[in-house]
Amino acid sequence: MISAGFSSALCVRPVVSFSNTIREVHNHGRVTCLATSMSSASMTVAKDAEYELESRKYELLNIIQDTQRGLVTTADQRSTIEEAMVVVEGFDAGKEIDLSKLDGTWRLQYTSAPDVLILFESAARLPFFQVGQIFQKFECQNESRGGLVRNVIKWSVPRLLEENEGATLIVSARFSCVSARNIYLKFEEIGLQNINISDDLQAVIAPAILPRSFLSLQILQFIQTFKAQIPVTSPERQSVGGLYYLSYLDKNMLLGRAVGGGGVFIFTRAHALIC
Predict the structure, then answer these.
(1) By the number of CB atoms within 10 A of the CB, which of 21, 110, 186, 215 ranks highest?
(2) pLDDT tens, residue by residue, 220-250
(3) Nearest Cα to 121, choosing from 71, 155, 78?
(4) Where is the Plastid lipid-associated protein/fibrillin conserved domain (predicted)?
């Protein structure tokens, strides 16, 4: 009986073991399939979210397209732009500033800041003044809590300087991160450089029908290489500063708000800028 029982045990146990193995393989397959399905679902959700974000960014840029960078807007347009900005900002809410993304040059597409709009208004009213592209150039690639920012304004005087690119005004500031989203700007210097005179003015200085004299060439070279820098700070007075809230940031769009009612800014990535 013992021998028979032992023999029966030998016959039964392998069957039970094999059955358990089949069950384990089956369950493992179900877990693997479930994990794969969850991974696929997560990828689908991520792609949907990315598509939704890009669509909202496109809508925002489309809304501001005919505003002349904020110069020509109605109250309804400004309200619509604000709503569209809030939607985009919601995708990036609560995240800390990534200085590696912020580093680089950004082109102004729209603003409601009075100190910038007055430049556009002046250019619209005055025939002898033009405002070209406006950039913000951040230098903070290897920094952890701040860096340097340059506000670059291209401007011109028709017939005297090249159109829209006649000269470059640069307002430099140091910035520091004071919270997850706020940076404090401390302005340091205002500079004027890259003066490109028009062909008409060159003809006055050195007429084409005459050989250019040493004096005329010196004058042309002086104008073209002229560079003036005026410090904003001095031992007698404190630097002008301001708080700036970066409400959205990714690899190709930057949204900002000047704290204290100073207006909003919409920038897109600029791939190259010489200044």
Answers:
(1) 110
(2) 565 556 556 666 665 555 556 789 999 999 9
(3) 71
(4) 57-267
Instruction: Give dist(CA 67, CA 73) in Å, integer.
Output: 6
Residue bearing tokens 């045990």:
9
Can you tell me which residue has the tokens 């690899």? 251
Torsion of CA 263, 191, 163, 267, to 10 degrees: -30
Tens-digit pLDDT profile for residues 171-221 = 999 999 999 999 999 988 888 887 777 566 566 655 554 455 555 555 556
Q: Of the candidates 186, 108, 107, 106, which has an alpha carbon nearest to the alpha carbon of residue 146? A: 186
241's CB contacts (< 8 A; 6+ apart) are 173, 184, 185, 186, 187
